[in-house]
Amino acid sequence: MSARVGVITFPGSLDDRDAARAVRLADAEPVSLWHAEGDLLGVDAVILPGGFSYGDYLRAGAIARFAPLMEKLVAAARDGLPVLGICNGFQVLCESHLLPGALTRNTGLHFVCRAQRLRIENAETAWTTDYEEGQEVVIPVKNMDGCYVADPETLDELESSGRIVARYLDVNPNGSLNDIAGICNEAGNVVGLMPHPEHAVEALTGTSTEGLGFFTSVVKKLVAA
Amino acid sequence: MARFIVEVMLKPEILDSQGQAVARALPRLGFEGVTQVRQGKRFEIEVDGPADEAATERVRKMAETLLANPVIETFELRAE
Amino acid sequence: MARFIVEVMLKPEILDSQGQAVARALPRLGFEGVTQVRQGKRFEIEVDGPADEAATERVRKMAETLLANPVIETFELRAE
Amino acid sequence: MSEQSSNESGVEPTGAGSAGSAEAATEPTPVRPAEVDSVARAAQTPELPLPYAELGMKDDEYARVREILGRRPTSAELAIYSVMWSEHCSYKSSRVHLRQFGDKAPQSDALLVGMGENAGVVDVGNGWAVTFKIESHNHPSYVEPYQGAATGVGGIVRDIISMGARPVAVMDSLRFGPPDAPDTRRVLDGVVRGVGGYGNCLGLPNIGGEVVFDDCYAANPLVNALCVGVLKPEGIKRAIAPGPGNKVILFGAGTGPDGIGGASVLASATFDEESQAKRPSVQVGDPFMEKLLTECCLEIFDEDLVVGIQDLGAAGVSCATTELAAAGTGGMDIDLNTVPLRDPTLRPEEILMSESQERMMAVVEPAKVERFLEVCAKWDVPATVIGEVTDTGRLRMTWHGETIVDIPPGTAADEGPVYERPYEVPADLAQLQADGPGRLPRPATPEDLRNTVLWLAGSPNLADKSFVTSQYDRFVLGNTVLAMPEDAGLIRIGDGPQGIALATDGNGRYARLDPYAGAQLALSEAYRNVATTGARPLAVTNCLNFGSPEDPGVMWQFARAVEGLADACQALGVPVTGGNVSFYNQTGTTPINPTPVIGVLGVHDDVNRRVPMSFNVEGTTLLLLGETRPEFGGSEWAHVVFQHLGGLPPRVDLAAEAALASVLVAGAREGVLNAAHDLSDGGLSQSLVESCLRGGLGCVVDLPDDPFTELFSESVARAVVAVYPEHEERVTALAQAAGVPVRRLGTVGGDAFEVAGLFSIPLSELREVHQGALPALFG
Ligand SMILES: Nc1ncnc2c1ncn2[C@@H]1O[C@H](COP(=O)(O)OP(=O)(O)O)[C@@H](O)[C@H]1O
Ligand SMILES: [Mg+2]
């Protein structure tokens, strides 16, 4: 039986179809979850996709956090459900306090879309075991509010406990502190990522296929479990 | 050193999509009874020198040309 | 009907790129002597019923949970 | 050509006033503010003067309205006729010319819906159809660049949705004033943010466009937005209201006072009201609402819940109701009080003229209304039944129980005035054409040639556009195979391997020198760009940006451009499926260079075989396809180095263009092309620079004859291709069979752009000038 990975659609989600495609390419079954439902439909993992939920009005992710399904998700994540928040999904995870810190306006004040080189810093989270620690990959970034900020204690804590999942190389596209592109929670089941691995799963349409590892990692883990 | 506050709001006749989105979301978040939300910007500006007429005029000019877009926004200015 | 103003500003230790961009642009436009600009948000909120303690508390709750993100922002609330 | 849905605000100058007409002489009857200008009242006060001239209506047009109605119009009726008969809704100046697109249309089995609908639809095979269209939002983008550009994107996307399609990509063709003018920074910054802010938030990849700078656009930027959508042929929707008893539903955003500066004239003139609230002439967009509206519409189409649908663009409710009714059973009753308002003080005339964005109107069978409203609720999209279809042949509207509109809808929608405007060759054209580029000194030494290559590569029009395009999402939806800076955008459709390619091109300088040729050259280039990726060009959309049609010189340019385009489409076998006309692009009495912007759609049988532009395989052979003549009139070289515009543009050669395309398409299909890049602005020099930088590899080329001409001429129907040595023979044979001249240029490799025996430029140096130019100006 293949793993079932839920993809939540909020009003204004944009990359939900892409996330579902990536799940499929990782040989798992994508399950659409609608923000207003009260049930996770028994999925084995959840992706919060990129986009502009609620138009990014107020603050990116601020309104989506209150979706009925999020209450269920927060509880399940605390119990160890693998959760990946991509871009807007990362913002929602921070707003929900599943991950520390916040994502603010890019320091360049422009939306930035580019093929971005990253280094995978932690290859032990639920979503990164198919990478090597220190591996460099090229994955698109595209965001307006991707500047990761946190207070110095939180940053120290993230750094010292190995909770930086990925870091920008060459160019820091949004001014993130410590070049942070992604982080995880203490248990490593919840990962937030600014770049879009779901746009790097097919050589034809992406920058590479180097994003597929995020999806295959979790699928392997689920199948093994 | 003088400190000014400039508050910029959309003109009432201009669609405030942000404010409306917040207002539409509120009941779902358990906040009933909110009839309107408007969202604008607030600037805190510190300038060298005293908070005199001249400084106020300079900040007003700034607000007119840069902080607010007179085509769709209005602003209020006060010293603090 | 009661009317409240909520002002949300980034905490001083959080980088305010928008404010900084304004500050950087000012000299180019001929405005010298500005030492700092900070940019935040301003909400005008209208709620049903009187502007009493209970209404204020409801809006405070809204500000804390929705309008401001306590990780990076502070807010001030006042009735108008 | 869509004659109904130009989204652009009307900017017609108001015509000669009505002073001295019989009506103006009559004493106006005093009216209380609360009173409604009903049909009954209009009958009782036949001589009440109405401010038709202020609304841009001519005396004879107003007289025709009176004749149609057999009485004076009510102010609400006048609102309808004045917007529906305006230039941007009625195409009254352009219509007689645009007919050629239909009359000369080449035979095409692919055309499912031609001109006249919201957008044309073509059959691309395998059970898929594609709809696409380009539209201008020039004037609003100058007044408020962010909102102008944003609502431009929003409007064209709604046009595509209203055909029943899922929008899948956007493009933007932009023209600004001189790059170093301070106002250009304001306009460019706002426009690019607006295009990105709206398109990114909608989740539509931006796959291409143009950024052009020229003094003539200083106070008149051009913002042309294109959207393409995909649908099943059986899912095509139309803007019709058939079936008496069917309900008319307005859904989407509330109606506010957007873009109705003109309407307050009506209210204040007819009703002596104390003071009308300020009515903004700018429209403001809400991309989030449009995203909800998109998903909502697609679900509604999936469940087959509508019999007709129309987006609300310019002229809002007036346009949607008259057109739906005119194209359906013929009658409609609307209760204007039911229109959900953002501003409760709006008067009926203002509701009718409001250009509030993110609204649609649907015609729904009574049994399906409930389900329709449920889907809207799911997506948080407000929806209201505002009326129903009748068989009375009349469009009737009530306001507080009184009838305020009672007209035959076709008279407003289809029977607008048609002008045969006088035209004549612009007085200065002969002189301009006589002043050819022959007198311009050419670079003489290898060093001069080298510097010219760099100069062009770093000039604003030829420089790398990443500063703009990196603000656009090109990955979303996961089907983007090629996007900027490639020659054409290419997206996969369905589950592949099929795809569609799109390019937009225009050259105002060429068109200024010869509008007939200029329009053809724009088509020629877009056609070539599409073919360069390996796609077969199939259909055309166009946006015609011109000065005032009341200027006979401009009208001549327009007539010539349309004729040129229609002739070229016929010659190349690609029909025009729709488009848009934007007049009055001028500053004072000085018109912009005539700027027809042409979009070409092509199909790709297998996107895995797309041909990119980048040189990235060491040792591949470079071949030049096509013939180079010394052609410098209107060229980038003359423009950049001498700010010179004169002479004649490159010779049009459509047969050569078609032959070149056939080689490129065949080469792609056979998999024998490693890279291909067309030659256009800046000539061979610029093409090689771009392909080298894109792939990160240099090249060495031989230019034995006249290196200046070979490097910088802008002759049409040319492309450079990189092929593996083992494919050289096959590609040469393909070219020869098609009658396309082919010549071995050199080899890919190294880290410099080198012309053997003349000069060499390290890629790092090229990269710096090419990529650094726009950030230095606007960063
Ligand atoms: N405003 C824009 N939006 C999107 N893409 C753009 C824009 N301007 C230029 N581009 C892209 O940059 C590339 C170079 O543009 P251009 O030199 O005009 O192309 P071409 O000469 O092939 O027509 C193309 O891929 C074009 O689509
Ligand atoms: Mg090209």
TrEMBL record, chain A:
Q: Which HAMAP family match?
A: PurQ (MF_00421)
**Active-site residues, record numbering mapped to chain:** 87 (nucleophile), 196, 198
| Superkingdom of source | Bacteria
Predominant location category: cytoplasm
Q: What is this protein called?
A: Phosphoribosylformylglycinamidine synthase subunit PurQ
Write the record's keywords in alphabetical order, separated by commas: ATP-binding, Cytoplasm, Glutamine amidotransferase, Hydrolase, Ligase, Nucleotide-binding, Purine biosynthesis
Q: Does the keyword ATP-binding apply?
A: yes
Q: Which gene encodes it?
A: purQ
Which PROSITE patterns does the protein's record reference?
GATASE_TYPE_1 (PS51273)
Subunit (UniProt): Part of the FGAM synthase complex composed of 1 PurL, 1 PurQ and 2 PurS subunits.
List the catalysed reactions: N(2)-formyl-N(1)-(5-phospho-beta-D-ribosyl)glycinamide + L-glutamine + ATP + H2O = 2-formamido-N(1)-(5-O-phospho-beta-D-ribosyl)acetamidine + L-glutamate + ADP + phosphate + H(+); L-glutamine + H2O = L-glutamate + NH4(+)
SMART domains associated with the record: GATase_5
Task: Quote the Pfam families the UniProt record gives.
Answer: GATase_5
According to its UniProt entry, this protein's organism is Actinoallomurus spadix
Chain's role = Part of the phosphoribosylformylglycinamidine synthase complex involved in the purines biosynthetic pathway. Catalyzes the ATP-dependent conversion of formylglycinamide ribonucleotide (FGAR) and glutamine to yield formylglycinamidine ribonucleotide (FGAM) and glutamate. The FGAM synthase complex is composed of three subunits. PurQ produces an ammonia molecule by converting glutamine to glutamate. PurL transfers the ammonia molecule to FGAR to form FGAM in an ATP-dependent manner.
Q: Is Amino-acid biosynthesis set as a keyword in this record?
A: no
EC number from the UniProt entry: 6.3.5.3, 3.5.1.2
TrEMBL record, chains B, C:
Pfam families on file: PurS
Q: In which pathway does it act?
A: Purine metabolism; IMP biosynthesis via de novo pathway; 5-amino-1-(5-phospho-D-ribosyl)imidazole from N(2)-formyl-N(1)-(5-phospho-D-ribosyl)glycinamide: step 1/2
Its domain of life reads Bacteria
The main location class comes to cytoplasm
State the EC number(s).
Answer: 6.3.5.3
Give the keywords, sorted.
Answer: ATP-binding, Cytoplasm, Ligase, Nucleotide-binding, Purine biosynthesis
Intracellular or extracellular location(s) = Cytoplasm
Q: Which reaction does it catalyse?
A: N(2)-formyl-N(1)-(5-phospho-beta-D-ribosyl)glycinamide + L-glutamine + ATP + H2O = 2-formamido-N(1)-(5-O-phospho-beta-D-ribosyl)acetamidine + L-glutamate + ADP + phosphate + H(+)
**Family (UniProt):** Belongs to the PurS family.
Assembly notes: Part of the FGAM synthase complex composed of 1 PurL, 1 PurQ and 2 PurS subunits.
Q: What is the role of this chain? A: Part of the phosphoribosylformylglycinamidine synthase complex involved in the purines biosynthetic pathway. Catalyzes the ATP-dependent conversion of formylglycinamide ribonucleotide (FGAR) and glutamine to yield formylglycinamidine ribonucleotide (FGAM) and glutamate. The FGAM synthase complex is composed of three subunits. PurQ produces an ammonia molecule by converting glutamine to glutamate. PurL transfers the ammonia molecule to FGAR to form FGAM in an ATP-dependent manner.
Q: Know the name of this protein?
A: Phosphoribosylformylglycinamidine synthase subunit PurS
Automatic annotation (TrEMBL), chain D:
**Protein's recorded name:** Phosphoribosylformylglycinamidine synthase subunit PurL
Domain Phosphoribosylformylglycinamidine synthase linker: residue ranges: 52-92
Q: Report the source organism.
A: Actinoallomurus spadix
Q: In which pathway does it act?
A: Purine metabolism; IMP biosynthesis via de novo pathway; 5-amino-1-(5-phospho-D-ribosyl)imidazole from N(2)-formyl-N(1)-(5-phospho-D-ribosyl)glycinamide: step 1/2
| Reaction catalysed by this enzyme | N(2)-formyl-N(1)-(5-phospho-beta-D-ribosyl)glycinamide + L-glutamine + ATP + H2O = 2-formamido-N(1)-(5-O-phospho-beta-D-ribosyl)acetamidine + L-glutamate + ADP + phosphate + H(+)
Encoding gene, per UniProt annotation: purL
Among Pfam families, the record links this protein to:
AIRS (PF00586), AIRS_C (PF02769), FGAR-AT_linker (PF18072)
Which PANTHER family does the UniProt entry name for this protein? PHOSPHORIBOSYLFORMYLGLYCINAMIDINE SYNTHASE SUBUNIT PURL
- For the ligand (Mg(2+) 1), the binding residues are 135, 580
